[in-house]
Amino acid sequence: MSTHHLKLNLGKTELLFLPAKGSPMIDASITVEGSIVSPSQSARSLGVTLDNQLCFLSHIAAITRTCRFSLHNIRRIRPFLTQEATQLLVQALVISRLDYCNSLLAGLPACAIKPLQLVQNAAARLVFNQPKFTHVTPLLSSLHWLPIAARIRFKSLVLAFQAARGTALPFLQSLITPYTPPRPLRSAPAGKLTAPSLRAPGSRSSRSRLFSVLVPRWWNNLPQSVRTAESLPIFRKRLKTHLFRLHYH
User: Fold this and answer.
1) What is the dihedral of CA 97, 103, 104, 110, to 10 degrees?
2) pLDDT digit string (tens) for 187-213?
3) Is 4 part of a structural domain of the chain?
4) Residue 179: which domain range?
5) What domain of life (predicted)?
């Protein structure tokens, strides 16, 4: 930064160590221009809270608090709103937050993302002005809202489509490898991706969350008509239809 005549704002600087599994926690500080920067358990970057275990529990908790606050405010004025106006408000203030950077949550267990699903359930009940314990699946289906797990998969597969077509950022493209069969097969033009093995060195549970491991497996399970879509809008439409049928029919 000194070379490029930039000044570090030490008041906004955070130090975060990400140790490997089984490694001891590092309790060290760094000194920059005479100021000491101590390590923290989590750090916020571009609206995402990163913790030193990359389990994103702090991020999920922050999203849940913000969304519930928005739902509380909308609920106060719900008697004066139509269903259409309520849906617009909920989608703008709540659903958009649930979708923000949600591909980072790919591979997390269902218990970790359950708070987000509860928020979405509450949002659907609010749109239809239903009581707290109303069965929510018909409401989500009527709104054409995919559940949280499916929304995470949708966003991850859209990134995979862009990476496979060469329109994503270079670092994402480097994580995706088209599948090439060892000999000519009928499945050659099926648009599949190479799915790395889970037996490679490292923790099996942590490898299963890697974009380069998890997303190709999701991709290869898609119908061929979805994988071979001609453009991104067509892919998004077919993918949402596929996931919608998978979860609601």
Assistant:
1) 90
2) 555 778 887 776 655 555 566 778 888
3) no
4) 151-248
5) Eukaryota
